[in-house]
């Protein structure tokens, strides 16, 4: 399945909640395997996002002028950073995840909004 990074980032909280829900062993196994693959995409995104921040940012200093080890995007670079970040989250990636059957989630407690965000990962039959 192909999905944009933006969509993956949006489903992350609902996916985390789904992982904590009761479901049959087989469904839990396949979902767990799929999430491991998704975590690789999340990590790649985060690595690239941090690289963007570092390349367009500056060190944050404390009150005494010492480097805190944190970096923030320079104000002058914000438009360029936002454009680059938008380009990054619009990348379409291929994820190999087996959809979970809706019937396997009968004991799950998810809001309609969470279910809607997970639509691509849930199979009705």
Q: Could you characterize the architecture of this molecule?
A:
- The structure is a single chain.
- The protein is of the alpha+beta class.
- It has one domain (2-123).
- 52% of the residues lie in helices and 18% in strands.
- It contains four helices and six strands.
- The protein has helices at residues 5-19, 25-56, 78-89, 112-117, and strands at 2-4, 57-61, 67-73, 92-94, 100-101, 122-123.
- The strands form three sheets. A two-stranded antiparallel sheet has the order 1-4.
- A hairpin with a 5-residue loop joins β2 and β3 (67-73).
- α1 (5-19) packs across α2 (25-56) and α2 runs antiparallel to α3 (78-89).
- The longest helix has 32 residues, at 25-56.
- The protein is elongated, with a radius of gyration of 19 Å.
Write out key terms for the chains shown.
125 residues, two-stranded antiparallel sheet, 18% strand
Short précis:
By secondary structure, the chain is an alpha+beta fold. The chain is built from four helices and six strands, in the order βααββαββαβ.
Q: How many DSSP-defined strands? A: 6
Distance between the termini: 18 Å
Strand pairing plus helix content: what structural class?
Answer: alpha+beta
Biggest sheet features: 2 strands, antiparallel
**Number of helical segments with 4 or more residues:** 4
Q: What is the strand content?
A: 15-25%
Poorly predicted regions are none
> Going across the major beta sheet, what is the strand order?
1-4
Helix content: 40-55%
What is the overall silhouette? elongated
Rg measurement, Å: 19 Å
Order of helices and strands: EHHEEHEEHE
Total domain count:
1
Question: Kindly state the mean pLDDT as a whole number?
Answer: 89
């Amino acid at each position: 399945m192909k999905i944009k990074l933006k969509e993956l980032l949006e489903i992350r909280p609902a996916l985390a909640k789904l992982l904590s829900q009761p479901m049959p062993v087989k469904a839990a196994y396949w979902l767990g395997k799929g999430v491991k693959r998704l975590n690789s995409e999340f990590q790649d995104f985060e690595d690239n996002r941090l690289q963007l921040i570092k390349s367009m940012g500056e060190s944050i200093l404390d009150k005494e002028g010492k480097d805190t080890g944190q970096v923030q995007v320079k104000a002058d670079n914000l438009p360029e950073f936002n454009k680059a970040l938008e380009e990054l989250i619009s990348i379409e990636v291929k994820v190999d995840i087996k959809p979970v059957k809706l019937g396997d989630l009968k004991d799950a407690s998810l809001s309609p909004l969470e279910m809607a965000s997970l639509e691509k990962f849930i199979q009705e039959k």
